[in-house]
């Protein structure tokens, strides 16, 4: 089983590598275009539909600093695919090098249980949960900025801050009464 | 200006500035009865004020509910009225509590609503496309016997009759529009927390011309200071309806279980998935048996266990249907959305349309929908 390992390769100079995992393969395209515009560091964006990643590229692939799972809440399949991909990550990634990004959270077609399930998943893994709006260019820009701020820390480009420290500040929390039904 | 005259003004000024601290707002909302659109959450206990506001989380249906028993509802309810409610497709909305709605004044409400519709017609708001000679007669009536608990208000049925355009003098008026307001097994904490003058009938169903529906809604909004909004039957709610109807198969056959899914491909793909009733029943009972086996390991009172259905059983049932479809067609329905569920007992559409074909399970269906309506009501 090919597990993605965070520390098995050497980092590049002033480089940050991010892996966007999305089952629909839509939002990751526009995010990638916006992410490579960054000028302060060289940002390499790798796209994937799900993990595990193909073995053929194992040698050429650089060290991945941040794995971002993009979940579209209107589709159950998206969430299931992201959940299944988590198994192929080395536990070292969960010290601040994984984050979840959720789209379409405001859509009325989304049952509340699905968002609760994503929150519980993110909270149990101590990862941040970002909400993004993928239909407008402004939304893409905002999502890019937030991802970049986490990516720079995860790649070690920000002095005095490590990914683990940032994740302890930004991790998703679940209110204690999340399982309580509204009615008795 | 004498200095003595200034100081009392300044003092008064100071008093008025310091009189409204921000953190007493929550207390005010609970004790004063001025807010007409009462928040559902304001009735939750003191813990909701002290720790996290449940605003983000208290938005889910019950995770387990009692299995529906077939109610021989014709004993309690007038069968003619019942016949009006079944076998019609209703468009659902939620309603916030009505202010000073009295069940004893239904006749006067009928007159007022007829006058309102006539006045709106005069103003030129198009009500019908046929000639201006149509007169509308409104009748409000009570459907007694449907309320399940003591806190529920009685169901109100509204009908609008009119004569067709080229009718003879003695031809009776036919109903062109019907609607009803109901509350079945509403949350007792919430119902008891409402101030005295408010009646809660959160579920509104209408069938007929859209223009008449808007007129009736605007009349209610003007007279009873409530607000209406569209009620969608969410994915979870549709799953519940599917499971509850399938559960009734032994008593009255569902004949088939039909689901309509939409898949987000270009061009959009619509899948109609019909399951034979016997197969659906077998799948459902096997899901229930598994749950029973798990429960026997723990200790639960036997009659509780037989009667209650958990959300895990419902999702397990749905998962079984989806994996069967995947095995045959290699198409994962999780990627799409469920639009409609129908059986011989009724049909429900995501857009908020419901049809109950069998009066025996009406109470259970309406309980579920009342819960949905109470949840959707805005703050």
From TrEMBL, chain A:
GO cellular component annotations of the record: chromosome, centromeric region; nucleus
Highest taxon of the lineage: Eukaryota
Main subcellular location: nucleus
Protein localization: Chromosome, Centromere; Nucleus
Residue stretches spanning the membrane: none
Gene3D superfamilies: P-loop containing nucleotide triphosphate hydrolases (3.40.50.300)
Record keywords: Centromere, Chromosome, Nucleus
Protein name per its UniProtKB record: Centromere protein M
Native species: Cottoperca gobio (Frogmouth)
Lineage, highest ranks first: Eukaryota, Metazoa, Chordata, Craniata, Vertebrata
Gene: pane1
Automatic annotation (TrEMBL), chain B:
Database matches in InterPro entries: CENP-L (IPR025204)
Localization per record: Chromosome, Centromere; Nucleus
Keyword flag Coiled coil: no
GO CC, any one term: chromosome, centromeric region
Region entry Disordered, spans: 1-20
Keywords: Centromere, Chromosome, Nucleus
Keyword Ion transport assigned: no
A matching Pfam family: CENP-L
Primary subcellular site in the record, as a coarse category: nucleus
Family: Belongs to the CENP-L/IML3 family.
Protein name as it appears in the record: Centromere protein L
Provenance organism: Cottoperca gobio
């Amino acid at each position: 089983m090919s597990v993605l390992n965070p520390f098995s390769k050497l980092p590049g100079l002033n480089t940050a590598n991010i892996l966007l995992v999305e089952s629909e393969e839509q939002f990751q395209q526009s995010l990638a275009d916006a992410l490579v515009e960054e000028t302060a560091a060289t940002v390499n964006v790798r796209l994937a539909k799900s993990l595990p990643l193909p073995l053929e590229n194992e040698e050429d692939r650089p060290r991945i600093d941040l794995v971002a799972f993009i979940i579209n809440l209107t589709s159950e399949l998206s969430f299931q695919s992201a959940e299944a991909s988590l198994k192929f990550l080395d536990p070292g990634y969960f010290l601040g090098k994984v984050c979840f990004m959720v789209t379409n959270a405001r859509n009325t077609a989304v049952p509340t249980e699905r968002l609760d399930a994503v929150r519980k998943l993110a909270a149990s893994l101590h990862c941040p949960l970002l909400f993004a709006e993928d239909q407008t260019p402004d939304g893409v820009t905002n999502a890019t900025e937030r991802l970049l701020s986490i990516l720079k820390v995860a790649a070690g480009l920000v002095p005095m801050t490590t990914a683990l420290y940032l994740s302890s500040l930004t991790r998703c929390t679940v209110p204690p009464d999340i399982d309580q039904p509204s009615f008795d | 200006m004498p200095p003595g005259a200034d100081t009392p003004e300044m003092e008064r000024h100071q008093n008025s500035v310091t009189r409204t601290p921000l953190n007493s707002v929550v207390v005010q909302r609970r004790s004063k009865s001025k807010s007409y659109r009462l928040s559902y959450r304001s009735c939750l206990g003191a813990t909701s004020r002290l720790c996290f506001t449940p605003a983000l989380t208290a938005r889910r249906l019950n995770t387990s509910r009692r299995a529906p028993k077939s109610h021989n509802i014709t004993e309690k309810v007038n069968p003619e009225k019942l016949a009006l409610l079944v076998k019609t497709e209703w468009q659902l909305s939620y309603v916030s509590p009505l202010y000073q709605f009295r069940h004893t004044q239904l006749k006067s409400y009928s007159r007022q609503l007829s006058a309102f519709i006539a006045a709106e017609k005069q103003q030129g708001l198009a009500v019908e496309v046929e000639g201006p000679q149509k007169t509308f007669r409104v009748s409000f009536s009570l459907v007694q016997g449907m309320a399940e608990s003591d806190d529920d208000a009685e169901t109100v049925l509204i009908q609008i009759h009119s004569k067709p355009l080229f009718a003879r003098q003695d031809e009776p008026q036919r109903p062109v529009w019907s609607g009803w307001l109901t509350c079945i097994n509403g949350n007792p904490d919430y119902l008891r927390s409402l101030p005295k003058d408010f009646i809660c009938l959160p579920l509104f169903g209408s069938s007929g011309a859209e223009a008449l529906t808007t007129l009736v809604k605007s009349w209610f909004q003007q007279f009873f200071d409530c607000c209406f909004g569209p009620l969608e039957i969410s994915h979870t709610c549709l799953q519940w309806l599917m499971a509850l109807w399938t559960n009734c198969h032994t008593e009255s056959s569902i004949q088939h279980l039909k689901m309509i899914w939409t898949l987000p491909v270009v061009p959009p793909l619509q899948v109609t998935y019909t399951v034979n009733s016997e197969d659906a029943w077998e799948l459902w009972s096997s899901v229930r048996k598994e749950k029973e086996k798990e429960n026997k390991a723990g200790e639960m009172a036997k009659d509780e266990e037989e009667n209650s259905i958990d959300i895990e059983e419902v999702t397990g049932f749905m998962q079984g249907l989806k994996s069967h479809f995947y095995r045959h067609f290699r198409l994962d329905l999780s990627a799409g959305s469920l639009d409609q569920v129908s059986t011989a007992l009724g049909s429900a559409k995501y857009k908020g349309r419901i049809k109950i074909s069998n009066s025996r399970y009406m109470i259970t269906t309406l309980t579920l929908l009342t819960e949905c309506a109470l949840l959707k009501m805005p703050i």
